[in-house]
């Protein structure tokens, strides 16, 4: 029937028209329910007009609201009386992620909406299932595994693929989408550590790898589900077999079938499973051999490893291009480190580079907003009342812009804010900021297991690239790239650059 093939645009237009009709009827009759600093809220439709107006910049818009409120917290009223609390208050974040951890889980809305792509993987589950996955995964991040990761997976990808591609671009004076290159680099690395499989996505021909492309589409369409103006509207679209839901189904099927094929091959090689130390082999050896369960786990780790480090590095190299004094300091640090030391030891001692990466992620976090749901009624430390089932989102993007924390110069890219020199000393020492003030890697029991691995990988890439090349953005001077967010952050339209040999 034709009814089953309504286009998404037609359905969207009908819903928007209906809401705007209700809005116009209510506007003259209803008194706004909020102060002038907050988006106006109306019966039934909530703050739908403001949300619609700022859809293209929701992260920035919600950040501006948060940083203008006295307690760095506000409630966004969505359609049909639903309420989403946003906070950039460190005390609230500590309460949600640690002090009252058991009361804030992923929530049915998030888990149901993302189940098609993430299933019951570690980033979409709670309770005993989450604990088990975290326990098994933790073995992947000990010192021995991290050293092996840097000195084998990362270095081989650098030497055999990334550096030759950049050398060729410099020689041919071609423009590269550096965001795409970094995503390919990270994708190859995470597949090696998760599957023990090399997809060769950063091969010289830059192939259109089917699995990677399907993964990108599945992530984008799943994000659209989450950001829909009407909660669970995707369920109606799925029942009507709308184009976006049909595409999501196809993309998810391709992702999961590819992952299952890798799992089947790994299972057939019993010797490989028993001797290998990649994440997939660890889970298979743990006695959990159900294909769907193991697939969920692997897909979650691909999401974490592929898009987060590449997003962080993309914005880092853009910021570096506008701050030559920082680039100079990093080059001095790289030159001071003896080339005779191991790759692992080299990156461990890159203190200024570490601070620069932290500063970059303060301004452009790979995950700008993370959401939990209240299991039962609660009151946050700042007095905000939380009802059972309410979604509560902490906002790393906004938290990096709080003047009382970072100073009046919060908008400046200044790595030295993370550093101090001992009295009479010449070397920098790193000044840690607590993870509830800077929750870029989450905090509390769910703090990111791969935090150290991510820093090691990023610093190794920075050292290898900057030793040899200068990355020059191909953009209109004075025009800042657009920060956008799906499940993770991206630079809208990519990051076109020219590569120049360093003299």
Output the number of helix runs. 20
Number of strands: 14
Strand-residue proportion: 5-15%
Main sheet properties = 5 strands, mixed
Could you tell me how far the N terminus lies from the C terminus, measured between alpha carbons in angstroms? 66 Å
Helix content: 40-55%
**Global Rg:** 23 Å
Which helices and strands occur, and which strands form pairs?
Elements lengths: L7 H20 L20 H6 L4 H11 L4 E5 L5 E5 L2 H10 L4 E2 L1 H12 L8 H12 L4 H30 L2 E3 H18 L14 H17 L6 H7 L3 H26 L1 H6 L3 H7 L5 H31 L2 H13 L6 H6 L2 H13 L6 E5 L3 E2 L5 E2 L4 E4 L1 H4 L3 H4 L12 E3 L6 E3 L20 H18 E5 L9 E3 L3 E3 L4 E6 L2
Parallel strand pairs: 2-8
Antiparallel strand pairs: 1-2, 3-5, 4-14, 5-8, 6-7, 9-10, 11-14, 12-13
Helix pairs in contact: 5-9, 7-8, 7-20, 8-14, 9-11, 11-14, 14-17, 14-20, 15-17
Could you characterize the architecture of this molecule?
With 503 residues, this protein is α+β, with helices and mostly antiparallel strands. It contains 20 helices and 14 strands. Strands 1-2-8-5-3 form a 5-stranded mixed beta sheet, sandwiched between helices. It has a 3-stranded antiparallel beta sheet with strand order 4-14-11. It has a two-stranded antiparallel ribbon with strand order 6-7.
Summarize the structure.
With 503 residues, the protein is of the alpha+beta class. Helix content is 54%, strand content 10%. It has 20 helices and 14 strands.
């Amino acid at each position: 029937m034709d009814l089953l093939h309504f286009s998404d645009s037609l359905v969207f237009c009908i819903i928007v028209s209906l809401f705007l009709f209700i809005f116009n009827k209510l506007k003259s009759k209803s008194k706004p329910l909020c102060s002038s600093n907050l988006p106006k809220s109306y019966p039934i439709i909530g703050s739908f007009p403001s949300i619609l107006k700022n859809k293209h910049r929701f992260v920035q818009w919600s950040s501006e609201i948060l940083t203008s409120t006295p307690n760095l917290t506000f409630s966004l009223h969505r359609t049909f009386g639903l309420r989403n609390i946003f906070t950039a208050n460190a005390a609230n974040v500590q309460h949600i992620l640690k002090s009252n951890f058991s009361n804030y889980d992923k929530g049915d809305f998030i888990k149901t909406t993302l189940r098609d792509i993430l299933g019951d993987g570690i980033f979409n589950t709670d309770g005993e299932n989450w604990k088990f996955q975290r326990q098994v995964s933790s073995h992947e991040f000990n010192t021995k595994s991290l050293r092996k990761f840097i000195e084998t997976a990362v270095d081989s990808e650098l030497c055999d693929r990334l550096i030759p591609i950049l050398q060729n671009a410099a020689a041919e004076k071609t423009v590269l989408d550096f965001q795409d290159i970094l995503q390919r680099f990270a994708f190859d690395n995470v597949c090696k550590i998760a599957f023990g499989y090399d997809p060769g996505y950063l091969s010289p021909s830059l192939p259109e790898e089917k699995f990677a492309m399907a993964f990108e589409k599945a992530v984008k369409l799943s994000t659209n589900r989450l950001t829909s103006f009407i909660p669970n509207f995707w369920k109606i679209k799925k029942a009507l077999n709308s184009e976006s839901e049909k595409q999501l189904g196809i993309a998810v099927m391709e992702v999961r079938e590819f992952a299952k094929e890798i799992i089947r091959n790994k299972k057939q090689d019993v010797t490989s499973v028993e001797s290998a130390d990649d994440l997939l082999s660890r889970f298979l050896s743990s006695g959990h051999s159900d294909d769907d369960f193991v697939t969920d786990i692997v897909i979650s780790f691909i999401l974490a490893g592929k898009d987060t480090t590449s997003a962080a590095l993309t914005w880092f190299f853009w910021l570096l291009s506008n701050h030559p004094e920082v680039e100079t300091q990093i080059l001095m640090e790289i030159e001071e480190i003896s080339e005779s030391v191991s790759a692992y030891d080299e990156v461990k001692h890159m203190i200024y580079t570490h601070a620069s990466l932290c500063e970059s992620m303060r301004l452009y976090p790979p995950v700008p907003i993370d959401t939990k749901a209240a299991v039962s009624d609660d009151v946050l430390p700042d007095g905000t009342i939380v009802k059972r089932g309410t979604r509560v989102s902490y906002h790393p993007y906004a938290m990096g812009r709080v003047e009382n924390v970072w100073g009046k110069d919060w908008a400046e890219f200044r790595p030295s804010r993370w550093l101090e020199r001992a009295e009479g000393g010449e070397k920098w020492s790193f000044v840690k900021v607590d993870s509830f003030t800077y929750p870029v890697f989450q905090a509390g029991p769910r703090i990111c297991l791969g935090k150290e691995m991510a820093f090691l990988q990023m610093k190794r890439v920075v050292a290898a690239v900057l030793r040899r090349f200068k990355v020059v953005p191909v953009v209109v001077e004075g025009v800042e790239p657009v920060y956008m967010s799906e499940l993770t952050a991206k630079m809208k339209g990519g990051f076109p650059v020219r590569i120049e040999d360093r003299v």
